[in-house]
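Quick one:
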Amino acid sequence: GTKTFTSVAGRAVLVAAVLAAAATLLALALALLISRSITGPLVRGVAFARAVADGDLTGRLAIRRGDEIGILAGSLNDMSARLGDTVTRIQQGAEQVAAASVELAASAHGLAEGAQSQASTLEQTSAAVEQLSVSVDQVAGHARSQAAIVEASGGAMADARRAIEEVAGGLGRIA
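Output:
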């Protein structure tokens, strides 16, 4: 009887040891599986975040899960898409500013040419006015000379008239 009890107890201990070893191996495999299901997506998420930080806003993180890792992946995708939209709007705004500055430069150049042309015209007009002023001064000088000559002639004519009157008076007396 004791031999059978010992062999049954030995077998029970052996079965318990084998079951404990199997449970330990199953627990290790399950822990490894759970660890990889967490670290794999996290590693891909970190690589995606680095790509976004380096300026690649075209990629998307393909993790479809309902847990926190899935929510994090969705948020990273949304962030990348919004950053891409923001960069696109900034680029469009910069292009519009560049186009407006080209137009402004062209307008400024046109205004400068117009101002230069007006300055040239004004310079020509000023020279013509100056010449006209000199001509008016010359005409006025000639008019004064003519007036002096006329005035002098008027005096000479009066003297000649008096002389004629005296001669006529002297002739009248002689007659």
